[in-house]
Amino acid sequence: PKRDLVFIAHSLGGILVKEVLRRSDIDPDPKINQVFMSTTGVFFFGTPHRGSRDWASFGEGVAAVAGRILGVDVNTQVIHALLPTGPELEICRESFTAQWVKRGDNLTVRTFQESKGVTGTRWGGFNQLV
């Protein structure tokens, strides 16, 4: 229970990691709180820390098609949470920043992001940065 935890997260997984750490930091259960206290590193790969208006809109379109054609039940609240104007991302970002400051040198954070769009395709915006 006391060994170091290092999270490696890609894309939306980075948002989930920040939310897990936020919840574990304030949880009264010592076992849950230990997740935050044991975390010594977080690596974010392509995490949309400030949301992604274009991809959230794309996700809404895919969700609508999946709902109508495939009869899949879709939770659009998750998609709306990725909008840059959404309060969920702001709360997540602010709490993670406070945690990082609180932990100081005991928490290493590294962020990696795309610097170029995918070449050779013009389909669906994949040739742009996310």
List the helices and strands and how they pair.
Blueprint: E1 5-10, H1 12-26, H2 30-38, E2 39-45, H3 53-69, H4 76-81, H5 87-103, E3 108-112
Parallel strand pairs: 1-2, 2-3
- Give me the count of strands: 3
What class, by secondary structure content?
Answer: alpha/beta
**Approximate strand percentage:** 5-15%
Helix content: 40-55%
In short:
By secondary structure, the protein is an alpha/beta fold.
Report on the structure:
The structure is a single chain. The chain is α/β, with parallel strands linked by helices. It has 5 helices and 3 strands, in the order βααβαααβ. The mean pLDDT is 77.
Structure keywords:
130 residues; alpha/beta; three-stranded parallel sheet; 5 helices; 3 strands; globular
